[in-house]
Amino acid sequence: MYNPFLDAPADVTDEQLAARARAGDRTSLEALVGRHQPWVYNIVVRMVWSPDDAQDLTQEILIKMVTGLPGFRGESRFRTWLYRIAVNHVFTFRRQREDEPVETFAEFTRDLEDTPDTDPGGSDPATLLLIEEAKILCTVAMLACLS
What we know:
Largest sheet: none
Number of helices: 6
Structural class: mainly alpha
Number of strands: 0
Oligomer: single chain
Radius of gyration: 23 Å
Distance between the termini: 50 Å
């Protein structure tokens, strides 16, 4: 796996690999994917804060990169082009996630019952503040369940 901070400069640029991959060179395509997979993952995991979602999204982005490679015109750096694909894909993912239905009362009740009880007696002010914030968030979540 290529690391631009630790490894010597690559003999072949991303743009050259992209041109060769467009021409049908499978080795260049594999090199391009291998070179950028960790970089894409790092961007995505910082945007979604979920390693599992980041792995799935990274694979989807790399598929978009491979299938969209004929559209890369070389007017910008390859990594800039790939960055736009990644960010747009994550934004779409996040918009879709916002449109998902809110939990039902039954699901919310089950989650609350699974939450351990805590006794705030004698707790420090920071803990009491966190408990109050949790109460407010629970109230908001229950209101969101209403139709």
